[in-house]
C-alpha cells in the first residue's frame, strides 16, 4: 500500500548531477551515528555549493554560502529525523539523495518506520499541510519553551517551510507484510 502527502514527485526526472549516501542501521548504534549527521550534511552542502557561482552579488550575499547553509540545514534535519524515527527492528538502510536541477535542489530521504509511528507522523503531516504555517511555528516555539526539552522540537519541517520556502512531500510504502515493514520517503524541494 502506498500513501502520498504534499508535493511529492513520483518520477523525478533523471539528472546528471546527484549524490546518494546510504547508512546501514545495524553497523553502529544510533547514538554514535548521531554526531555523524552534521558531517554528512556538511559534505552534501560542500558538494552542492560548487555548482553555484561564488562571486559576491551587489547585496553582499554569496550564492555559494547561501546554498551551502540551506543544504546543510535541510540535510541535517532530514538525517536526524530519519535516524531518530527509523524502525530499529527493520534491516532496511537509511538513504539520502541530493539531486541538482537548474531551478531546484531536491532532497530525498528514505527510512523505515514502525506502524505506530507512521500514524502519528501522518497526523503531524496533515497538520503541516492544512493549518496556518505561522501559527504552527509560534505554537511549537511556545510549546518547546514550556517543556524545556530537546527530545522533540518539531521545528525542522516548519523551518524548511517558513525560512527556506521549501516544498515538502512524503510517500509511505508497505514493503513487507509479515512482519509489516514500512518505509517513508521524505522529499524536500529547495528552489534556487
Identify the notable features of this structure and list them briefly.
alpha+beta, Heat Shock Protein 90, 6-stranded antiparallel sheet, 192 residues, 5 helices, single chain, 43% helix
Protein model, in words:
- By secondary structure, this protein is α+β, with helices and mostly antiparallel strands.
- The chain has one domain: 2-Layer Sandwich (Heat Shock Protein 90), CATH 3.30.565.
- The chain is built from 5 helices and 6 strands, in the order ββααββαααββ.
- Strands 1-5-6-4-3-2 form a 6-stranded antiparallel beta sheet, covered by helices on one side.
- Strand 5 and strand 6 form a beta hairpin.
- Helix 1 packs antiparallel against helix 2 and helix 4 runs antiparallel to helix 5.
- The longest helix is centred in the middle third of the chain and has 23 residues.
- It starts with a strand and ends with a strand.
- The mean pLDDT is 89.
Amino acid at each position: 500500500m502506498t500513501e502520498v502527502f504534499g508535493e511529492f514527485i513520483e518520477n523525478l526526472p533523471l539528472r546528471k548531477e546527484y549524490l546518494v549516501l546510504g547508512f546501514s542501521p545495524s553497523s553502529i548504534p544510533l547514538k554514535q551515528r548521531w554526531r555523524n549527521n552534521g558531517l554528512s550534511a556538511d559534505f552534501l552542502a560542500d558538494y552542492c555549493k560548487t555548482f553555484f557561482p561564488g562571486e559576491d552579488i551587489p547585496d553582499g550575499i554569496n550564492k555559494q554560502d547561501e546554498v551551502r547553509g540551506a543544504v546543510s540545514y535541510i540535510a541535517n534535519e532530514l538525517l536526524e529525523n530519519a535516524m531518530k524515527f527509523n524502525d530499529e527492528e527493520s534491516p532496511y538502510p537509511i538513504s539520502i539523495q541530493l539531486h541538482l536541477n537548474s531551478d531546484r535542489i531536491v532532497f530525498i530521504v528514505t527510512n523505515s518506520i514502525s506502524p505506530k509511528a507512521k500514524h502519528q507522523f501522518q497526523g503531524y503531516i496533515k497538520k503541516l499541510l492544512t493549518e496556518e504555517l505561522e501559527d504552527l511555528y509560534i505554537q511549537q516555539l511556545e510549546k518547546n519553551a514550556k517543556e524545556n526539552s530537546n527530545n522533540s522540537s518539531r521545528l525542522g519541517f516548519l523551518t524548511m517551510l517558513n525560512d527556506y520556502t521549501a516544498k515538502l512531500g512524503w510517500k509511505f510504502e508497505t514493503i513487507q507484510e509479515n512482519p509489516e515493514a514500512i518505509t517513508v520517503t521524505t522529499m524536500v524541494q529547495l528552489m534556487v
